[in-house]
Design brief:
This protein is of the alpha/beta class and 427 residues long. The protein has two domains: 4-19 and 242-423, UDP-n-acetylglucosamine1-carboxyvinyl-transferase, Chain; 22-239, Enolpyruvate transferase domain (UDP-n-acetylglucosamine1-carboxyvinyl-transferase, Chain, Alpha-beta prism). 29% of the residues lie in helices and 23% in strands. It is built from twelve helices and 23 strands. It has a four-stranded mixed β-sheet with strand order 2-15-17-16, with helices on one face. Strands 4-5-3-14 form a four-stranded mixed β-sheet, with helices on one face. Strands 6-7-9-8 form a four-stranded mixed β-sheet. Helix 7 (244-256) packs parallel to helix 9 (315-322). The longest helix has 14 residues, at 92-105. It is globular. The two termini are 27 Å apart.
Length: 427
C-alpha cells in the first residue's frame, strides 16, 4: 500500500470533534441487539471494527439500518440465528463479547478473524464460559481463535471465576452476556484487574439497558435478576461520546506545539482515557475544561517522569511519543496488555522510537524513553498493521522532521479520516 509522507510542521491549531468511541459503539451495538426495543444509536464510530460488529449482527439475523448519522437496530435475543459463521477481522471488541453471548445462547457458530486474531489469547474467557456450561472448541491452537461454539448446558452455578490480568475485555464480555441466563450470578476476579475504566464503561452502558451489577471493589461483580432488570433501554435513542483515545493524538500534538479544542468531550466522560489529560498536565501541558469541550495548549517545556498506565493502555501509546519531546526520561509502567493487542506494542514501539534517536529500555510490563537531543530525520515508520502506531507516530512531524508512515490505511480500524483531520490542523 502507498506510504504517507508527513513534512515538518510548526504547530497544530483549531477545533475538532473526533469520531465516536470504538469501545462505546461496539458495546452499544451488541446490547441493542439483545434488547426487544428499536434502538437508535447516534454519533457512532464508522470504522472497520464497528463494521465487523454490524455485519456480524446482520449475519445473525438482526435488522440493522446503518445510516451515516445513526444506526437503527431492531433486536431481541429471539431473533438470533443458531447456525452462522462469523468473520470478525481483528476486532477484539466484537469477537470477545459475541463469543460470550453466542455461547450462552447456544447453537452452531464459527468465530474467526485475521491471522493476528489467531495470536490474541482468549483462553481466560473460554475457561469462564465453560464453567457456566458453554461448549466451545478451539479449531487450531488451544487458547486462541478460531472457535466453534455448540449447545449450551447450563450448570446453574452461582459464581464464575475469570482472570483479570490479561484483558478487561474478558470481564466486559461476561458482564454483557450473563443476564441472558435470567438468574442471579456473581463474577469473581482472579488476580489484579487491569484497565478498570473499560469495565466502568461497560457498567455505565449496561445501566442504560436497565442492567445493574453490584461492583465489589473490582474484586467481584454481582447480578441480581428481575424481569425489570433485563436488556430494556431507559431511552431508545443513545448518543456515543467522541473517542477519548482518538482525541489523545490531538491533545498530545497541542502539548508539543499549538492549541487544540476537542468538541463534545468533557471531564465527565465515562471513558477512562480522559485520565490522559492529567498525565500531560503533569508533563507541562496546559489543559482547560469547559462545559462542552476541552482545550489543550502547548507546554513551555515537556518533562518526563513515571506514569502508571494500567488504566489507560491505549492512550499510553500517545504518551510514549511525547517521550521524544521531553527534557527528561519518561517511564510508562503496567503496560503488559500492549503485548496482546493488534501487535506486540512494546516491541513495536521500542523499535520505532529508536529510529528517531531515542534510547529505549523495555520490559514485559514497562517502557522507558530517553529522549534524543534532536529527532532523526526522514524516518520510515513501520506500522505493524496497528492503527495506533500509525496515529501516534504522525506526531513526530511536529519535531521538524519528515516522517514516512507505512500502510497508513491501517487507521481504518478505528479512525478512517485521521490523517485528513490531523493534517488539516497543521501549519
Amino acid at each position: 500500500m502507498q506510504d504517507l509522507k508527513l513534512f515538518p510542521q510548526i504547530k497544530i491549531n483549531g477545533s475538532i470533534k473526533p469520531p465516536g468511541s470504538k469501545s462505546i459503539t461496539n458495546r452499544l451495538l451488541l446490547l441493542s441487539s439483545l434488547c426487544p426495543q428499536k434502538i437508535v444509536i447516534t454519533n457512532h464510530l464508522v470504522s472497520d471494527d464497528s463494521g465487523f460488529m454490524i455485519q456480524a449482527l446482520k449475519d445473525l439475523g438482526l435488522s440493522i439500518n446503518n445510516q451515516t448519522e445513526s444506526i437503527v437496530i431492531e433486536g431481541g435475543i429471539h431473533k438470533y440465528s443458531t447456525e452462522v459463521s462469523l468473520f470478525l477481522g481483528n476486532a477484539g471488541t466484537a469477537f470477545r463479547p459475541l463469543c460470550a453471548v453466542l455461547s450462552l445462547l447456544g447453537g452452531d457458530y464459527i468465530l474467526d478473524g485475521i491471522k493476528r486474531m489467531h495470536e490474541r489469547p482468549i483462553k481466560d474467557l473460554i475457561d469462564a464460559l465453560n464453567q457456566i456450561g458453554a461448549q466451545i472448541t478451539y479449531l487450531k491452537n488451544d487458547g486462541y481463535p478460531p472457535l466453534k461454539i455448540g449447545s449450551f448446558n447450563d450448570t446453574a452455578i452461582q459464581e464464575v471465576v475469570v482472570k483479570g490480568n490479561t484483558s478487561s475485555q474478558f470481564l466486559s464480555s461476561l458482564l454483557m452476556a450473563l443476564p441472558i441466563l435470567k438468574r442471579d450470578v456473581q463474577v469473581n476476579i482472579d488476580g489484579e484487574l487491569i484497565s478498570k475504566p473499560y469495565i466502568d464503561i461497560t457498567l455505565n452502558l449496561l445501566d442504560i439497558f436497565n442492567i445493574k451489577f453490584i461492583n465489589h471493589n473490582y474484586e467481584s461483580f454481582e447480578y441480581r435478576y428481575s424481569e425489570k432488570n433485563y436488556y430494556f433501554a431507559k431511552n431508545p435513542v443513545i448518543s456515543v461520546e467522541p473517542d477519548a483515545s482518538s482525541a489523545s493524538y490531538f491533545f498530545a500534538a497541542a502539548a508539543i506545539s499549538g492549541k487544540i479544542e476537542i468538541m463534545d468531550l468533557t471531564k465527565n466522560s465515562i471513558q477512562g482515557d480522559i485520565y490522559f489529560l492529567e498525565c500531560i498536565e503533569k508533563m507541562g501541558a496546559k489543559v482547560k475544561y469547559l462545559n462542552d469541550s476541552i482545550t489543550v495548549s502547548q507546554a513551555d517545556q515537556l518533562s518526563g517522569g513515571y506514569f502508571d498506565c494500567i488504566s489507560i493502555p491505549d492512550a499510553a501509546m500517545t504518551l510514549a511519543i511525547l517521550g521524544l519531546f521531553c527534557s527528561s526520561p519518561l517511564t510508562l509502567d503496567n503496560i503488559a496488555s500492549w503485548k496482546v493487542k493488534e501487535t506486540d506494542r512494546i516491541r513495536a514501539m521500542k523499535n520505532e522510537l529508536e529510529k528517531f534517536g531515542a534510547k529505549v529500555d523495555a520490559t514485559d510490563n514497562s517502557i522507558t524513553i530517553n529522549p534524543p537531543k534532536k529527532l532523526n530525520n526522514n524516518i520510515r515508520v513501520k506500522t505493524y498493521d496497528d492503527h495506533r502506531i500509525a496515529m501516534c507516530f504522525a506526531l513526530t512531524c511536529l519535531g521538524g522532521v519528515i516522517t514516512i508512515i507505512e500502510d497508513p490505511q491501517c487507521v481504518n480500524k478505528t479512525y478512517p479520516n485521521f490523517f485528513r483531520d490531523f493534517t488539516g490542523l497543521l501549519s
